[in-house]
Design brief:
With about 240 residues, the protein is α/β, with parallel strands linked by helices. It contains eight helices and twelve strands. The strands form three sheets. It has a five-stranded parallel β-sheet, with helices on both faces. The longest helix has 21 residues. The protein is elongated. The protein binds calcium ion. Calcium ion binds next to loops.
Length: about 240
């Protein structure tokens, strides 16, 4: 798949916003289709190949959150398609992340068309690299320099086994499940901590800090864990 041929589905009920988005995408060589309503978008996704969905949160029929939830339940590649939310208010971002909808990114209105296209490009590049680098075999899955072996609970970085605590392992494994997607502290905590965990251990930030130090020691040049201030963390592979 070349980036220029990628197909973006824009789901937005405000025509003026949709036209801006479509124009910005098409002038960069992307194929872009517009749906006014969530229901239409779900039908389109079942019938056509789509590489990325730009999804407005405030839609008059289903609403963006519900569309995303239903989309994730679709079988095959349609259920895995990356979703970038278009949000009108910053409070919506917390919901985008908090509901665990599997959003990959978000853009807050008003947005600059250039920023929006940059996000689309970054997300598509990431899908392309995941598609080419994820090799699953009996020894686990490769994501860029990371290799995870869920059976032995081991993660390798650049060929070296990382010596991780169970919390560090849980955090890194959760981030590796969806490279590039932002996970909130609560989401990370849900994956790594059981209800009986000592509250002193329930500090995601502390474990992220030690995890970063171990990645540095293993030879990571740029910090692969990105902090999204006030939101959470994402892993770049
Ligand atoms: Ca709207």
């Amino acid at each position: 798949m070349t980036e220029a041929a990628a197909h973006v589905l824009v789901v937005e009920d405000e025509t003026a916003i949709a036209e801006t988005v479509l124009y910005a995408l098409r002038s960069e060589g992307y194929a872009a289709t517009h749906c006014l309503l969530g229901g239409q978008a779900l039908q389109h996704l079942q019938a056509h190949r789509v590489d990325l969905v730009m999804l407005d949160v405030g839609l008059p029929d289903l609403g963006g959150f519900e569309v995303c939830r239903r989309l994730r339940a679709l079988p095959g590649p349609a259920g895995q398609v990356p979703v970038i939310f278009l949000t009108a208010r910053s409070e919506e971002i917390d919901r985008v992340l908090g509901l665990e909808l599997g959003a990959d990114d978000y853009v807050t209105k008003p947005f600059s068309p250039r920023e929006l296209v940059a996000r689309v490009r970054a997300r598509l590049r990431r899908s392309a690299s995941v598609a080419t680098t994820v090799v699953a075999d009996e020894k686990g899955q490769q994501h860029g320099a990371f290799r995870i072996d869920p059976e032995s609970h081991r993660i390798h970085y650049a060929g070296r086994v990382l010596d991780l605590t169970r919390y560090e392992y849980a955090l890194l494994a959760a981030l590796l499940q969806r490279p590039g997607a932002i996970l909130s502290r609560n989401q990370l905590m849900d994956r790594g901590w059981d209800a009986t965990s000592d509250s002193a251990d329930r500090t995601v930030d502390t474990h992220i800090k030690t995890l970063r130090a171990k990645l540095r020691a293993a030879g990571a040049q740029d910090d692969p864990i990105r902090t999204h201030r006030g939101l959470g963390y994402a892993l770049e592979v």
